[in-house]
Specification:
The complex is a heterodimer of chains A (334) and B (382).
Chain A: E1 7-17, E2 25-36, E3 41-45, H1 52-59, E4 67-72, E5 75-76, H2 86-89, E6 92-95, H3 109-120, H4 126-139, H5 156-168, E7 174-178, H6 186-203, E8 206-211, H7 214-220, E9 223-228, E10 231-237, H8 238-243, H9 248-255, H10 262-267, E11 308-311, E12 314-316
Parallel strand pairs in A: 3-8, 3-9, 6-7, 7-8
Antiparallel strand pairs in A: 1-2, 1-4, 4-5, 9-10, 10-12, 11-12
Chain B: H1 11-15, H2 24-32, H3 36-58, E1 76-81, E2 87-90, E3 96-99, E4 105-108, E5 110-115, E6 120-124, E7 130-134, E8 141-143, E9 149-150, E10 154-157, H4 172-208, H5 210-225, H6 228-239, H7 242-253, H8 255-269, H9 273-281, H10 285-321, H11 333-341, H12 349-376
Antiparallel strand pairs in B: 1-2, 1-10, 2-3, 3-4, 5-6, 6-7, 7-8, 8-9
């Protein structure tokens, strides 16, 4: 670890109060720790409802974290009052999942892309803003003729590119992509992912890439973290997670990737994950996965396994792989 | 050579949007005009607006100009021939009015001798001629030169007062214009004030949420339980101005519906991704409210307003009818109805005409509101 990571998330926790539930809370994000180096992509995967999006929204302060810290380039943003957050907001932006819901239907594309400029550079003249917007539109493969159209006139792929233009017009350092391709059809997915990669090389962007299918994450990420019920259960280099998945949950996820060849698919022995995600309002005691784990032991229901380095650069939170000398604080994936 | 040829596409064609650019308002208008009732309602509203705003300038009469001699003259007159070629009209109060051949009212004949044994009255037509009105039997009739009762033979349209006069001899058409003006003014003032208060109050309650929302909505609940009539009477007692007290009462009560609608909209909209995106961008609460939340809630807001207008009009008419609204001599549709009640049997047109205008206004606004609701519903988009 020669350089300071761009984003460092430490023990981040976000609990939502349950309406009418008294003191009970939804454990959306629980004690999540990871970091992302400048210019790399960190993939965050997990089933629907495991807290990936809540994690992203807490990092970017759409939600206020319950506890824990988020450092962007060494500056703390988790506890920062909203007023002092503005310069930090400029440095991190977000691309949303649903290109139909994430653009305001009552605004033209020009106004949608101009919103970040208006929020951060009040002194900018309209002509200057237009110039930046047109340049940005051309970068994402649209033309200035599109600027006066309303978002509902565009196709899904075009809309997602408008969302990307909105996120990138401020030239952020960190871009959080919250399942940016899962609402698009397959041919468009590749187009968007390639565009994101090109921008990463050109602008030196750092991505936090959230997805629920592992195949796409492998293609875009340098490192991958697997989340289950609000916790990180495994974290390592992207290729490593495919070649040597350690956590039973990761293994289950990998097995659930569909195989496009039916003859090969018939050879698949182990089945994917079974059962449903337990309620995040009162998660199972001990290891949260033990209710669905095929290898569950007595200790799993009692004691929560710490996230430890089981192999060089490969962290996992599972009693099957916990080394004796595990020290949860020295987590590192380098 | 094959029958099918590959079409060459390029990147520009792929990105092109082929539809005609249409703004949101254009889209709504396109769907609105497809519905005949909505369009009819809209045209009636426009017509009534012109009637109320420009009508009084075209009318030769003021709303309080009286001519006692020509009171209670209906719009369509049953007349009998006069010896000089004009017509004579007998009022229920046994006055005889000379009507020109074009339907103009030429004036009341001066009353001569009243023969109480024969039960006939002489009226002077000019220096030489007299006509006799026989009231021995009902209805009273003019006697012909031969001394026979001649029933009214012709119907002519009253061209001096197109819709007749009321019991004080005031032109009903002119008074209807002023009445519609009052109604529409009450409607638009109440609608505007309710919209502003309702949007602000409901918007803030929904946007802030939590405890503030709960307290604000309980206040709304309390306000909506107190009956409107009570407000108007109390405000009228202190203000002594009917129009103002009705407007104040309407504005202080009717916004609660609007506030509820806006709050509900804001509550659901603020969870949408485009609002979250705006937060992530760092836009101020003001920007989020004014550019994201309220424009997207505009559909239900407009529908609520157009549905609120007819009920505001009706409240004004009702209050004036029971005598705690507009003060005479100013005309309001409600006071006109009330005035007509005394002589309803002999002059029913005096009640029907203002009642018809009230119906027309309420129908028109209800149709417009209905059409707007359909036009603004994106699920019905074709």
């Amino acid at each position: 670890m020669s350089e300071r990571p761009l984003l460092r998330v430490t023990n981040l926790t976000k609990h939502f109060p349950v309406r009418g539930g008294g003191r009970r809370v939804v454990h959306a994000v629980d004690d999540v720790t990871f970091h992302i180096d400048r210019g790399t992509t960190f993939g965050l995967v997990g089933e629907s409802g495991c807290g990936k999006s809540s994690c992203a929204r807490t990092i970017i302060r759409i939600y206020d974290p319950t506890s824990g810290s988020v450092e962007l380039d060494g500056q703390e943003i988790a506890a920062c009052p909203a007023r002092e957050l503005m310069p930090m907001r400029r440095r991190m932006q977000m691309i949303f999942q649903d290109p139909y819901a994430s653009l305001n239907a009552r605004m033209t594309v020009r106004d949608i892309i101009a919103e970040p400029l208006n929020a951060h550079f009040a002194a900018l003249s309209r002509a200057q803003a237009d110039e930046m917007i047109f340049a940005m539109l051309e970068k994402v493969g649209l033309t200035r003729e599109h600027a006066n159209r309303y978002a509902h006139e565009f196709s899904g792929g075009q809309r997602q590119r408008v969302g990307i233009a909105r996120a990138l017009i401020l030239r952020p350092d960190l871009v959080i992509c919250d399942e940016p391709i899962s609402a698009l059809d397959v041919s468009i997915q590749a187009q968007i992912v390639n565009m994101l990669r090109d921008f990463q090389q050109e602008l030196g962007l750092t991505y936090l890439f959230i997805a629920h299918d592992l195949s796409m994450v492998r293609y875009v990420s340098d490192h991958v973290g697997v989340m289950y019920l609000g916790q990180l259960v495994e974290m390592c280099a992207a290729d490593e997670i495919y070649s040597h998945p350690l956590h039973p949950y990761t293994q289950g996820l990998l097995q659930s990737i569909p195989i496009p060849d039916p003859r090969l698919a018939r050879l698949k022995t182990a089945s994917g994950l079974e059962g449903d995600l337990p309620s995040p309002i009162d998660p199972p005691a001990g290891c949260r996965f033990h209710t669905r784990c095929p290898y569950a032991m007595a200790v799993c229901a009692l004691e929560q396994p710490p996230l430890c380095e089981a192999a060089p650069g490969h962290c996992v939170a599972c009693h099957l792989h916990t080394p004796r000398n595990c020290d949860a604080k020295s987590v590192s994936i380098e | 050579m094959s029958q099918w040829e590959r079409v060459q596409t390029n990147a520009q064609d792929r990105e092109r949007i082929w539809s005609v650019p249409r703004t949101f308002a254009g889209d709504v208008w396109f769907r609105f005009r497809k519905k005949p009732t909505a369009l009819a309602g809209f045209l009636i509203v426009v017509f009534l607006l012109c009637f109320a705003v420009f009508g009084p300038y075209l009318s030769p009469y003021g709303y309080s100009d009286q001519s006692r001699a020509l009171a209670n003259i209906p719009p369509i007159l049953s007349v009998s021939d006069a010896p000089d070629g004009n017509y004579l009209y007998v009022t229920p109060a046994l006055k005889v009015i000379l009507i020109g051949r074009d339907g103009k009212l030429l004036g009341q004949l001066s009353k001569g001798k009243d023969d109480e044994t024969l039960r006939r009255i002489a009226y002077t037509l000019d220096a030489q001629t007299e006509v006799y009105l026989d009231y021995s039997q009902k209805p009273a009739m003019i006697l012909s030169a031969e001394g026979e009762r001649t029933p009214a033979s012709k119907q002519v349209w009253n061209t001096t007062y197109l819709l007749g006069t009321d019991q004080l001899g005031r032109d009903i058409l002119t008074r209807l214009m002023y009445g519609a003006r009052i109604s529409l003014m009450v409607a638009f003032v109440a609608a505007t004030i309710n919209m502003v208060i309702g949007i602000l109050y409901g918007g803030i309650a929904g946007f802030v949420g939590g405890r503030a929302d709960a307290v604000m909505m309980r206040v709304v609940d309390i306000i909506s339980t107190i009956p409107l009539t009570l407000y108007v009477i109390l405000i009228k007692v202190t203000l002594d101005n009917g129009l103002l007290s009705i407007i104040i009462a309407l504005s202080s009560v009717y916004w609660v519906d609007m506030a509820r609608v806006v709050r509900g909209q804001v509550l659901s909209l603020k969870q949408q991704e485009f609002v979250l995106a705006s937060r992530a961008i760092g836009s101020s609460n003001r920007t989020i409210m004014l550019t994201h939340l309220i424009p997207n809630a505009m559909g239900p807001i407009l529908v609520t307003v157009t549905m609120l207008i007819p009920s505001a009009i009706f409240v004004e008419a009702f209050m004036s009818f029971i005598g705690i609204g507009i003060a005479p001599p100013m005309a309001s549709l409600g006071t006109m109805c009330n005035d007509a009640m005394e002589a309803l049997r002999s002059n029913p047109y005096q009640l029907f005409l203002p009642a018809l205008v009230i119906c027309l206004i309420m129908f028109a606004f209800n149709f417009v509101g209905d059409g707007l609701r359909d036009a603004l519903d994106p699920k019905l988009k074709k």
